[in-house]
Design brief:
This protein is mostly helical. It is built from 3 helices and no strands.
């Protein structure tokens, strides 16, 4: 009997790799959105980078939550409860 079947879940090594992959993608996603929002908002607002930081964080946190939910832990529950 394989380890994944015996424990009833995926091996921890695979979960770790997926966790690190989502973390790396989220970092790139967050920096990318911050750069994009900074470029768009700086000509409009004197301190556009502050608003860009807030918006990028909202997008990045949402991206991370969904990435971990769907790709790493593969849960099927209520989004608000989790």
């Amino acid at each position: 009997m394989s380890r994944s079947n015996r424990l009833g879940k995926k091996p921890p090594e695979l979960t770790l790799v997926r966790y690190l992959a989502v973390g790396a993608c989220n970092t790139a996603f967050g920096y990318g959105y911050f750069a994009l929002f900074t470029a768009l908002l700086t000509p409009i607002f004197p301190y556009g980078y502050v608003l860009a930081s807030l918006l990028a964080n909202v997008f990045s946190i949402t991206f991370a939550f969904l990435g971990y939910k769907w790709f790493v832990f593969k849960t099927n529950g209520n989004y608000l409860e989790e």
